[in-house]
Amino acid sequence: MIELRNLSKSFVTADGPVEALRHVNLTVNDGDIYGIIGMSGAGKSTLVRCINMLERPTEGSVLLDGQDLGALSKKEMQQVRRKVTMIFQSFNLLMQRTCLQNVLFPLKLAHAPKAQAEARAKELLATVGLPDKANVYPAQLSGGQQQRVAIARALATEPQVLLCDEATSALDPKTTQSILELIRQINRDTGITVIVITHQMSVVQEICNRVAILEHGTVVEEGDVSQVFSRPKAAATRALVFPEMSGGEGQLSSGYGQLVRLVFEGSITTNKPLIASMAMECGIAANILGASTRTVGKREYGYMLLEIPGGPDELARALKYISTVPNVVAQVEAEYSGKEAAK
Predict the structure, then answer these.
(1) What residues form DSSP beta bridges with 161?
(2) CB of 28 closer than 8 Å to CB of 16
(3) Cα-Cα-Cα-Cα dihedral of 194, 199, 201, 207, to 10°?
(4) Phi, psi of 216 (to 5 degrees)
(5) pTM confidence score
(6) What is the pLDDT of residue 343?
(7) Which of 48, 89, 122, 130 is 20 to 30 A from 3 via CA?
């Protein structure tokens, strides 16, 4: 288990101090694939570097199985870094060494017996689907293949935790999919805990079971991926989950209604003619301003943005009707008037 307790990190720059992280509290359980997501400058990379103490927190602590990493000596941290390994966006392979030599490198640092280390390295290259690339140099590989070698190298010391810092950001969508599937398979087969740092919500929805949303160095929302996706509370979360429905709704509004965001969960709900039924049964002809759906795991989630015409009474009737429909959550987004729309 990894625990971040009141973690803060500040840097001194020419323009003055910068708070990269502010009082972050997170718990990552053994076996999780935990996503940490945010826009550029949110503090994601600083956070992951604090987890393995490449950056020392200004305040707070990082605990691995109850052990405070900040209290360890340099030699003790070297041992911990064999348990907490990392892969990067730029792969960070040794270009003058073969794939086999790259995977062998951490085993040599750990003084593993030569024959045992070589057998382990070959086994890992087979695990990542590159058994025939042992004597090939990284420059001869595609980006996806280089990342597979980096994953094999990270697994060489049989770590407990794998940190992935934007590990698929430099890859095309098809290659990204294959790398994510590999990480998921390794998690499934070994039980290794994976922390995924990314700005891509598609990465989180593909493999993570829990997620934290980071904004300006602060965790604004955290929980199970399905819960966060289906009922995003923070504005930053909504912008990440469904950017096409974040901002600009007022221009689509007629100016005489209140905006309500509906969240659908499950195929039965999404197939129900909810808007038509509400019009017939309640006399409320809602204006559909936008809609979008996406798959999270094996479940389909959908969002719809409505403008409910009229005032508070009509809104209350609409919300009451929506509340009778299973697996639909209504969130009142905003209220518009003709005067506001004119602005």
Answers:
(1) 84, 193
(2) no
(3) -20
(4) 50, 40
(5) 0.77
(6) 35
(7) 89
